[in-house]
Amino acid sequence: MARSDARITLLIEILDQAFDQKAWHGTTLRGSLRGLLADEVLWRPAPRRHCIWEVALHTAYWKYATRRRLTGEARGSFPRTGSNWPKPPRAPSEAAWDADVALLVEQHTLLREAVAAMSAVRLDRRPRGSVWTYREMIHGVAAHDLYHAGQVQLLKRLRSRR
User: Fold this and answer.
1) CA 151 to CA 50: how far, in whole Å?
2) Could you give the CA distance from residue 19 to residue 155 in angstroms, rounded to a whole number?
3) For the whole prediction, is pTM greater than 0.85?
4) What's the structural domain count of the chain?
5) Which of 55, 77, 94, 152 pairs as cysteine with 32 (C-beta 3.0–4.6 A)?
6) Tens of pLDDT along 67-122?
7) Does residue 1 belong to any structural domain of this protein?
8) Residue 32 is part of a domain; what is its CATH number?
9) Which bin fits 35, alpha (ψ -120 to 50), beta or left (φ > 0)?
10) Which residues of 29-55 are buried (b: 16+ CB within 10 A; e: fewer)?
């Protein structure tokens, strides 16, 4: 699909650089998760603190939630329960971890497709009930990915020092 507006192209580049494409800032969200095993991503720095698995599901959820706002899709179609902070499965395994990473990648792909399909005229409009414009929400998802990429990197470092 041809993008007629440079702003749409730029927003997709920003999303991709934060998620899984080469970027000057360093590790992306997808890159921070690469090579991790289920037992590593379940580690918590303290009780009631988030583990990497929860962070991955949280970022997948917010990609879904933003896409839903962009497209007008109804609530309730996210594949995992728990919305904002879904929990890892009760019986964690490498296969379950791989499936949740695949869910994150899928939600990123669906979000970028929704952005590509947007009319640039809508970028500075606000969805009903929101204080944020569509453009600000898309920028926000990229910033959210980078924030949590840093959090994952820190959790990995803390785990290795114990």
Assistant:
1) 10
2) 18
3) yes
4) 1
5) 152
6) 999 999 888 889 888 889 999 998 899 999 999 999 999 999 999 999 999 999 99
7) no
8) 1.20.120.450
9) left
10) bbbbbeebebebbebeeeeeeebbbbb
